[in-house]
Amino acid sequence: MNWYIKAIKNYSTFSGRAKRREYWWFTLFNGLISLGVTLFALLFGDDWIISTIYSLFAFLPGLAVMVRRNHDTGYSGWWILCPIFNLILMFFKSDPEDNRFGPYPAETAE
To answer: pTM of the full predicted structure?
Structure first.
């Protein structure tokens, strides 16, 4: 859960790097929360208002962590516009050295 909170706190940080762990933990918790919110909306006849609000809330942090993940592998954040390449890139290992996007990220979530 620390990785999810870290991504939410860095919702407007499109510079720097995010390790695979940060990206995938954010994606997992975001998917689980989205599923829970959607089920809640279905069960209580909410007409998708709550799920739409959550989707809007999670959009910018998701975009930022995706761009930072691309930076971690040494690619520009603009590659998120190419979904197939971007999906493959999310599985690449981190560049273990400092690169043009910043130093190697720390091992733990803060």
So the answer is: 0.84
Return the ∠ at Cα 56 (arms to 75 and 39), rounded to 5°.
Answer: 115
Contact between 1 and 29 (Cβ < 8 Å): yes
Q: Please, what's the b/e burial string for 34-66 (b: 16 or more CB within 10 A of its CB; e: otherwise)?
A: eeebbeebeeeeeeeeebeebeeebeebbebbb
- Taking the C-alpha atoms of residue 107 and residue 78, their distance in angstroms, rounded to an integer, is 25
Note whether 70 and 100 are within 8 A (CB).
Answer: no
CA distances, 98 to each of 1, 36, 72, 74, 103 (Å)? 27, 38, 9, 9, 4
Q: What is the pLDDT of residues 12-54, one digit of tens each?
A: 889 999 888 889 999 999 999 999 998 888 888 877 788 889 9
End-to-end CA distance of the chain: 11
**What is residue 105's DSSP assignment?**
P
